[in-house]
């Protein structure tokens, strides 16, 4: 099934202050960078890198991101390159992390360095920095860092007059991620470039954008205004010029409080134990912020997680089609994960029902949606949403004929055996009731590719309505289809304000 159901959870919690020895960010606060250890962008205006593949994914708005694009213009993006500066205020409608989004031009001055690192000393430095700012009992140990550094970069058409230096660090263990914005002391010397034709007058911006309309952006105070000149002197950590954000797997977006040269640490606020998952997690998952999350190499809703191995999903088919009874027919679905394909077959059908059931293509498409290959962190397949425990109902209306399809799925384990272990084994029960056109008898029905749009009508429920067609002997036949998927929503991660 080509339909895509996107789900976003909110993220970002503010840090509390624990550092009392306050010094403005210097080169010592920067993580190592430079031409000998990093890759670098080509010089010029509006330059973006090729796709940069990450060994350890970054969690961003509850999605794992394994690909990133670096932009000269003070940001990184997860949904493709963002080259041209648009002069728009957040939200940009793109998945971005921006320490300093502005019209940067490195033609005459400046470099943009970037790399993913697993150096032990740098990982330990990040773990120490995080533990000083966030809850001391977080015990977070990153597996990698993405470090992007803009060094002595100037504004478009201003060249050498004023230069800025700043750094983005994202620490991740594939389940939790933290973002650092680091501005070197006295290094924010400009916040707006000379205007290009048809570009609005907007000062530099910093923050996060999910790219989804239902979740507004998070921006650093002063973003888009003259106050951006103070980012190297202000902070939400107690260290001027150093801003930290916890991202991913949180349910409430919290703005960090700006503290200008604050010398008294703020106490930690008590919160719930966010590592409890009372519903229980799969053996191939971990509990993060009260939510089960499948480990790398597995997919699912955290309560049920499958690997990348091929598997069988079995079921029984019952019902009445064209006045022919179907009883105890077998349904067999082979899921070839590496091919991103599913193969569906039904056995022991009455002689006159086999040809008409070709039209019931939505049954195979349901299996395709459940086990589809999700596109680089921007979407989830059906198993990741439902854990394979769900109910599906659909009605196909052909005008003079109408058929209803009901599927009750009880879940599968990694070896394809059912969770309920009933005899005969069945992962699902399929009921088909109604009449189907008989124009396929002795012929083959074919379909064109299509996209199914699903709407989340309430937690644990998706609906779709569409008009489609199929072809028999090069003749087109129309039908309408309505679909509904219901399941028990997995518990959302809890969060405490710290």
Please explain how this structure is put together.
- The chain is mostly beta strands and 498 residues long.
- It folds into two domains: 27-267, no CATH class; 309-486, Beta Barrel (Green Fluorescent Protein).
- Helix content is 6%, strand content 36%.
- It has three helices and 27 strands.
- Strands 18, 19, 20, 21, 22, 23, 24, 25, 26 and 27 form a ten-stranded mixed β-sheet that branches. Strands 1, 6, 7, 8, 9, 10 and 13 form a seven-stranded antiparallel β-sheet that branches. A six-stranded antiparallel β-sheet has the order 2-3-4-5-11-12, with no helix packed on it.
- Strand 18 and strand 19 (324-336) form a beta hairpin.
- The two termini are 42 Å apart.
Question: Layout of helices and strands, plus pairs?
Answer:
Blueprint: E1 39-40, E2 52-60, E3 63-71, E4 75-77, E5 96-101, E6 104-105, E7 111-117, H1 120-133, E8 144-155, E9 164-172, E10 177-183, E11 205-209, E12 218-219, E13 242-247, E14 285-288, E15 291-294, E16 299-300, E17 305-306, E18 311-321, E19 324-336, E20 341-347, H2 361-370, H3 382-386, E21 389-397, E22 402-410, E23 428-434, E24 445-446, E25 455-458, E26 461-472, E27 475-486
Parallel strand pairs: 18-23
Antiparallel strand pairs: 1-7, 2-3, 3-4, 4-5, 5-11, 6-8, 7-8, 8-9, 9-10, 10-13, 11-12, 14-15, 16-17, 18-19, 19-20, 21-22, 21-27, 22-23, 24-26, 25-26, 26-27
**Major β-sheet, in short?**
10 strands, mixed
Count of DSSP-assigned helices: 3
Low-confidence stretches: 1-23, 251-275, 413-425, 492-498
- What global shape is seen? elongated
Return the string of H and E elements: EEEEEEEHEEEEEEEEEEEEEHHEEEEEEE
Radius of gyration: 27 Å
The end-to-end span amounts to 42 Å
Structural class comes to: mainly beta
Determine the mean pLDDT: 79
Number of domains: 2
Strand content: 35-45%
- The tally of beta strands, per DSSP, is 27
DSSP helix fraction = under 10%
Pfam families: G2F, NIDO
Organism: Bugula neritina (Brown bryozoan)
Protein name: Ndg
Keywords: Calcium, Extracellular matrix, Glycoprotein, Secreted, Signal
